[in-house]
Amino acid sequence: MYGDTAKKGELAVSLALTVVNALVAILIVQLAHEGLPTLALGTILTYVLVGIAGYVGGRSGSIRIAVAELIFIASLAVVLDTRSMSREFIRELFTLYLLVYSITFLIGSSFFKSLRIPRGIGKSYRSLSSNVFIALAGLLGFTIINTSLLYYGLKYLGIPLTLKLGLLHVVLPLINVKPLNDSATILYVFTIVATFFLIALTNADRALSSPGLVYVWSAVLTFIPLSLPLALTLIDVRGGEPVAAGEGVVLGRVIKVLSKGRWRKAPGKVLEVPFKHGENNHIVIVGASGSGKSMLGKAIVKQVAEKLGGAILIIDTHGEYRGISGAKVFTPVENPVNILDRLDKEPSVRAKEVADLIASSFRLGNIQRSALQKIVLELYRRVDNPTLDSLEEALTKAIVGSSSGAKDSLEFARDVYRSLIPYIRMLRFKREVTYWVRPEDLISGVSVIDLSVIESESLSRVYVETALEMLFYAVKRYGGTVLLVVEEAHRYLGKGRRSTLARMLCEGRKFGVAVVVISQDPLRLDTSALTNAKVVISFSLAEATGASYIAKVVSGGVQSMFRLIREELPRLPNFEALAWLRGNNVVYHIKTYILNRYYV
Asked: Dihedral, CA atoms, 403, 404, 405, 406, nearest 10 degrees?
């Protein structure tokens, strides 16, 4: 769950710093009670640890960790039992600690160059409700229980509580009826309360649904200020689905950037693509099988559905999108499309489209194509709403008419008509039809066309082409906006092949259609995909020709960029990709956005 939620690196750093903070506190306690023989060694070790904390914090690039460590160092003067130390000594000691921390932090952060400002903290609109106070009460309750167990456990073991941890510094004086009138103590109490409230604010709904995590957070809060870096990092551990930074689509977290002929690190930045209806929002995603293409496709679908609305149609080759909440799932077996639907086109135009589609999908000859076109055209003239049953019946009549020499035999030999019937029957499935898909079904809500139930690429292509024709007809007639996601797009967008998908890439923007093309073979994609794409994303491509092809497109002919991109593509781990935005001479190496991961 934690994973990339709070950025793995930042979470690891915060855990390490919590350990370092504990060691620093223990050493300072020893300095206060052991006397001069260990004073020099203890002081040196403490300075070293504080320096390590500063350098590690600076290298992390996290402002929140920097602030947390500063608060920790300042608050040590409050939580320590200082009866053996004079206030002057404490002031001098902590001034030097702050100086050492600041210098090493500057070095670690390359003089603030690597610092990043966290985005999205506190963006939980529902948390403005009473849930926050319920979560806050739960956190406080568990933390007080932890504190009591710690206090009485140490007391039972006979361990003196020289270092007062977390709420012990607040609760014990109250038990002893001692007023908290020291300004440093009041500041410390405020820090604890603020941290509690931040975690409750950003995790209110998650806290109510997962009491186990509430106890984890409260256990961390028990050891404030030692665990303050970890507590502040956990602010980003929010449950539920991910939330993107703005109104665009988040593709992932930037690892490094290729600009002006060399790679540069860009820690913590989020790559967000503006996604506005009426603009070119086409995205091409390529990469080897299992590299993370479909996971990114699902994340894009989720964000568009939540942020922008509109209809979403997914051409799902392998049945990977069936589980989307609220989606209508259509299969060619149970939910056929009417291949012969005219879609308000001229009979001659639609007859040619149908004949070309069937002939190219099954690799029929020119004579078969012409015969099919003529018989479909004749069918349109005689029948208002023809189906495949009507077409097979017309072919049977043509065979009989051709063999008897009838004048309406459409001038083709009966063997030509007979050869077409098996293909027409293949397009009709044996199972009972539960619902015929209509054009208007494809422009409302989320629809998934699951092609995993059929193995024939020819049948898939006929079904998809017809469905896309219906979609294009529906958006032109009824309006609206549609996100079209096409898996294994090279099957429907092959080079040198006329396709509705290519037309959508060229003309779809005018009708509110945005296309996400996903393919593992960029060399088989029609050039319209890459020339019309707003964003090109490439996961790992081990095949040298494919890598070179994508590198050439993305680099824009710049030789130095071409070489670096081509070298990087085969080395990409799963779920990492190179992203290029049209009009931007920068290539981003990103850790792609996956559902249930929070990057911003």
From this structure: -120
Q: Which tokens hold the place of 310?
A: 């509109």
Give 432's DSSP letter.
P
Residue type, 141: G
Element (H, E) at 109: none
Question: Distance (Å, rounded) from C-alpha 395 to C-alpha 420?
Answer: 8
Distance set, CA 143 to CA 39, 454, 522 (Å): 35, 57, 55
**C-alpha separations of 360 from 91, 189, 289 in Å:** 84, 75, 27
Q: List, in order, residues 6 or more apart from 468 with CB less than 8 Å away.
A: 484, 492, 500, 501, 504
Position 301 confidence tier, pLDDT thresholds 50, 70, 90: very high
Angle between helix axes 559-568 and 544-555 (nearest 10 degrees) is 140
Give domain 249-336+433-592's CATH number out of 3.10.105.10, 3.40.50.300, 3.20.20.140, 3.40.50.620. 3.40.50.300
Distance of alpha carbon 299 from alpha carbon 312, whole angstroms? 13
Q: CA gyration radius for the chain?
A: 33
Question: Rounded CA gap, 297 and 335, in Å?
Answer: 24
Lowest mean pLDDT among 77-91, 120-134, 283-297, 357-371: 120-134
Mean of pLDDT over the chain: 78
- 488/497 Cα distance (integer angstroms): 15
Query: Does the pLDDT of residue 240 top 70, yes or no?
Result: no
Q: What CA–CA distance (Å, rounded) separates 379 from 351? A: 9
- Whether cis (ω within 30° of 0) applies to the bond prior to 225 is yes
Domain spans in the chain, listed from the N-terminal domain onward? 8-236, 249-336+433-592, 347-426
Q: Reply yes or no on whether the pLDDT at 402 is more than 80.
A: no
Strand partners, 513: 482
User: What distance lies between CA 230 and its chain's CA centroid?
Assistant: 25
Name which of 475, 481, 471, 442 is nearest 277 in CA terms.
Answer: 481
What lies within 8 Å, CB to CB, of 152 at 6+ separation is: none
Q: Please name which of 394, 296, 374, 369 lies closest in space to residue 593, comparing C-alpha atoms.
A: 296
Q: Pairing relation of β-strands 587-592 and 576-581?
A: antiparallel
